[in-house]
Structure formats: C-alpha cells, structure tokens
Amino acid sequence: MKIPREIPSMRRTDNSLKEVMTNLCNQKNFRRIFLNQTIPVLRLFANQPTMVLLYFIYNADTNNMIYCTYEDIMQDCSIGNKRTVANTLKTLQETRAIVKISKSHYMLNPALMLQGNNEKFGLLAFEFNDYISLYEKEKRYVSK
Fold first, then answer.
1. What are the residues whose beta carbons fall under 8 Å from the beta carbon of 57, sequence distance 6 or more?
2. CA 118 remoteness from chain centre
3. Which burial class, exposed, middle or buried, applies to 73 when counting CB atoms under 10 A from its CB (0-12, 13-18, 19+)?
4. Among residues 77, 74, 135, which one has the least CA distance to residue 102?
5. What region, left, alpha or beta, does residue 116 occupy, with left being phi > 0 and alpha being psi -120 to 50 degrees?
6. What is the 3-state secondary structure (H, E, C) of the chain?
7. In this predicted structure, what is the pLDDT of residue 143?
C-alpha cells in the first residue's frame, strides 16, 4: 500500500520560486494521463493562472510548442484582465515551466508534459535548455 504524501511546493523556504528541471525526470516518476479527460476535471477547480498553465499543456503540439497571443489565452480561458495573463506567463517563465521563443510562440518544458519516448524527451529537453540559455543571455543583455 502506498502512503499518501504532501504535494511538493514550487516555493523554497525563503519563498523564492524553484525551477522545473529536465534532469530530474526518469521512468520512476513517469505517469500517464489522458489530457482529454484530465484537463476538463482540473478546469473545474482551477483559478485563472492555473487555467493558463492547463491551456498550454492542452494546446502544446507534439514538439511542445504553443502558438498563441495574450488575446487567445484571455478568450479561451475566460480571463478579462491582460495583466493576469502577463503575470502568469512571467511566473511560468521564471520557474522554467515555459520559455518564450518569440512573440506568440512558447515552448512547454518537456519535464511537465511530453508526447513521445525517452529519445524524444532528450531531444526536446536539449532544445528547451538551448532556448533557456538564449533567454538568459537576452535578459542579461537587456539589463545592461
């Protein structure tokens, strides 16, 4: 019998955010879910920021790419405030749940969801980490 455990937090003890790490994924912590069943159930209880994450998970293509505007997200998630979407996307980027590739183009971290096998995970994780490196370089360049 498996003993229930508390759901881990994305916050450290100092209240800063943790990052989603692709190198912590393995077969032991892999679970299979059916998005067409799970997302509607989660949507019943989701607040607006959670709806944005569910939207990304549900709309990611087979390479974990999402193509959408703020307006698409606002309309499809029934969010009336653009600032809510902007703040949510900022937090998702800070935690490395997503990376912004260009305007209206994002990539979902394959450590959160993946369609494929271990080889595809490796390829997408490598690509995601490359985009993270570019994002970090741009962030440093802009702050100078």
1. 35, 39, 108, 112, 113
2. 19
3. buried
4. 135
5. left
6. CCCCCCCCCCECCCCCECCCCHHHCCHHHCCCCCHHHHHHHHHCCCCHHHHHHHHHHHHCCCCCEEECCHHHHHHHCCCCCHHHHHHHHHHHHHCCCEEEEECCEEEECCCCCCCCCHHHHHHHHHHHHHHHHHHHHHHHHHHC
7. 67
C-beta separation of 10 from 18 below 8 A: yes
Cα–Cα distance for residue pair 97/51, rounded to 1 Å: 14
Query: What would the pLDDT profile of 14-42 be if each residue is shown by its tens digit?
Result: 988 888 877 666 666 667 788 888 888 98
Q: Which residues pair with 105 in a beta bridge?
A: 67, 102
Question: Which pLDDT band holds residue 123 (cuts at 50, 70, 90)?
Answer: very high
Query: For residue 66, what are the β-bridge partners?
Result: 106
Q: Please, is 23 exposed, middle or buried when counting C-beta atoms within 10 Å of its C-beta (0-12, 13-18, 19+)?
A: exposed
CA-CA distance, 88 to 137, in Å (whole number)?
22
Instruction: Decide: 68 and 57 in contact? Cβ < 8 Å.
Output: no
